[in-house]
Amino acid sequence: QAFETATRHLSHMDRSVVADYLSPSTSTKSGNVIRARMLLSLIAGESSGSGEPAPRTSGAECPQMDERAAYDLFIKSFPVAINGRCPGKLVRTELVGIAYERLCYDHWRSDQKTLRMKHVIHFGRRLPTEHRVHAWMEKEGWTSNCPDVQQILRQWRPSGSVDTAVDCSVIKKLLQYQRWMGLIIVEIEGKGRGVKTTRKF
User: Fold this and answer.
1) Terminal Cα-to-Cα distance of the chain (whole angstroms)
2) Residue 40 DSSP SS3
3) How do the domains of the chain map onto residue ranges?
4) Mean of the pLDDT values across residues 21-36?
5) Using 50, 70 and 90 to split pLDDT, how confident is the model at 40?
6) What is the CB neighbour count within 10 angstroms for residue 199?
7) In the structure, how many helices (H) and strands (E) does the chain have?
């Protein structure tokens, strides 16, 4: 009876989440565990205050849950990953409520696309072709929510640095046997190592 009284203002779905969490004989999904704890925290706060709690249809629509809090709760259960997939609508609704499920979906996919862009932006030491980028993303298994290839090519930067290239064993071998007169590797103040000439060409 105490449970019914404390949770009467919650939706049927939220009451089920809390009941499953409190029952020792059932296993609760990780996302529902977080939501159940949040709901219990809200109930405890209301019980310690004065007056009756205001009716509401969903725990995700209460004043204590705003867009930022809803998304923080969402990514704790479903962290953004390069090769991950955003959970379906039913799972999202169970966790953050119908008011925020679409917002969390859009934010999650936007963050994933940004993560993928950062992952692919340093594509080797040479500017890749559009075909090669497409092939690489296909190999990664990215069938949706892919970064724009033209944007990747515009923002592309080579991986490594000049020092890394100079330290490369292949480059060192070429330098060892080169017969280029008047070229030397020197330390350039503030820039690292570079190539200078010792005579006019």
Assistant:
1) 94
2) helix
3) 2-113, 121-159, 162-197
4) 62
5) low
6) 7
7) 10, 2
